[in-house]
Specification:
About 15% of the residues lie in helices and about 40% in strands. The protein contains 2 helices and 28 strands.
Length: about 475
């Protein structure tokens, strides 16, 4: 304790001389204590604060699914009822991620199927999004805005949000209603409908008549008044059976109906097949509105099939081995079609290269063809032993009518098949003429020899007579 007190006292004594000088006086040099000036501690150099730039749309590059860049006027594609939006962003984020959510706007008259459309992309400087948004079936054509909201952490780690708007053009939907159109007010009206027509008989022949019975229903909201029914046909050959082809009916109330019968007939020149006739209803309503309803019905008409063909003839004689041509021309002179018309030729030693098929020939039309016939030998046909001689043939035309019945027209033909002449060989006529010439020559020589013999006998008789007379005279 005493030591501590002594130490404090010594310190006090050392400090007293400095405090005894008046203010402003300078102590002697030998007693001035050295002053030490402390160096200030340098402050740290401040670092620059990072700049948090916003994200921007990549307007320069073309990505898959884009027809144009954003800078050139990119428009989203519409394919198979869906809208495809390609949305590229560029810029720096804190964690290299960006989340984009599509805001489709108001639901009224929107072409989009609403849902939660949100995507997160990681790209460290480039973030590409592709949204597939279904479209409603009853969409209306036009241009619709879509807002794409980007959420991300900027380079400072702060939460940021940006909004981008692009437009989707719909051109495959319905045209928007014209604002200048005045909505029409629905007015109650009658509506007559011919719901059934019974034809008796259902098939008629040219020149016959038939009866049609029609059922009329009022499917409208009010009564049909002053109903007039008329009937007829624009096809040739179907005419009303009576001179008057119209009749007046009673008023038909809504939900009620009527049954009416009338007669028509066919003429002899009517074409076969399903021929039309019409029924027309003219009527008015309580307010003076005029209405017309027309329906068309069919009646089946049959007509006999009639046809003719070019007359055919064969040469008086033909030579085996040659080919001749025959016409195959058929004409439909009836009122019904000729079905599957075929022309053929049959005969011993005569062989067509093929039948001539002319197909269907309509009334008033013709079918033209040509038949090639090879001339062979009679013995080439079964039942014949001779090679050459007279032969007969049949030229046939076959067809089917509308009823499915098959008809055949046949024309008989005849000719003589002769042996072919070989080059350098004499014909039979030449051989016969030569034989006759030889026979005539032989007969001439016989006659000449007989004449010479007779002359010789006569000369001999004369000579002998003269010689005998001379001998007697001697």
């Amino acid at each position: 304790m005493n030591r501590l007190f002594a130490a404090l006292l010594a310190i006090l004594l050392l400090a007293l001389p400095a405090a005894a000088f008046a203010e402003g006086e300078t102590p002697p040099a030998e007693t001035q204590a050295p002053v030490t000036t402390p160096n200030p501690t340098p402050e740290p150099t401040p670092q620059p604060t990072p700049v948090a730039d916003k994200l921007i749309i990549d307007s320069w590059n073309l990505y898959d699914g884009m027809d144009k860049t954003y800078g050139a006027g990119y428009v989203p594609r519409i394919v198979n009822g869906c809208c495809y939006i390609i949305f590229p962003l560029i810029g720096e984020t804190y964690d290299g991620k960006v989340t984009v959510t599509a805001d489709l706007g108001a639901t009224a008259d929107s072409p989009f199927v609403f849902g939660n459309y949100s995507q997160t992309a990681a790209g460290w400087g480039r973030y590409v999004f592709m949204f597939e948004i279904p479209l409603v079936k009853g969409r209306i054509n036009g241009s619709y805005p879509v807002t794409l909201k980007a959420d991300y952490l900027d380079v400072l780690g702060q939460q940021k949000q940006q909004s981008f708007t692009l437009y989707v053009t719909i051109s495959d939907g319905k045209n928007p209603p014209d604002p200048n159109d005045v909505p029409k007010q629905e007015v109650e009206k009658p509506e007559l409908f011919i719901s059934a027509c019974e034809i008796n008989p259902n098939t008629v022949t040219g020149g016959d008549g038939f009866t049609a019975t029609v059922t009329i229903d009022n499917i409208g909201a009010i009564r049909a008044r002053s109903v007039r029914l008329s009937y007829g046909s624009e096809a040739a050959g179907i005419i009303p059976a009576d001179t008057n082809n119209a009749m007046h009916l009673e008023n038909i109330a809504s939900g009620e109906g009527a049954t009416v019968s009338f007669a028509l007939r066919t003429t002899g020149d009517v074409l076969a097949g399903e021929q039309p006739f019409y029924v027309t209803l003219d009527y008015v309503d309580l307010y003076g509105g005029v209405y017309t309803a027309t329906r068309q019905f069919l009646v089946n008409v049959t007509q006999p099939a009639e046809m003719t063909y070019d007359s055919i003839s064969l040469p008086k004689s033909v030579t085996a081995g040659e080919t001749i041509s025959l016409p195959a021309n058929v004409f439909n002179i009836g009122k019904s079609p000729l079905r599957n018309v075929t022309v053929n030729l049959t005969g011993a030693g005569l062989f067509p290269t093929s039948s001539v098929f002319l197909g269907d020939i309509q009334p008033g039309q013709a079918g033209y063809g040509e038949m090639k016939v090879f001339v062979g030998m009679l013995s080439m046909t079964e039942g014949y032993t001779e090679s050459y001689g007279k032969t007969s043939a049949a030229y046939t035309v076959t067809y089917t009518d509308d009823a499915g019945e098959t008809h055949t027209a046949e024309q008989p033909l005849s000719t003589e098949i002769k042996q072919p002449v070989i080059a350098g060989e004499k014909t039979d006529a030449e051989k016969q003429a030569e034989e006759e010439q030889k026979r005539a020559m032989s007969q001439w020589w016989i006659s000449a020899l007989a004449a010479f013999a007779a002359i010789a006998i006569i000369v001999a008789v004369i000579v002998v007579s003269k010689f005998a007379r001379m001998m007697r005279m001697r």
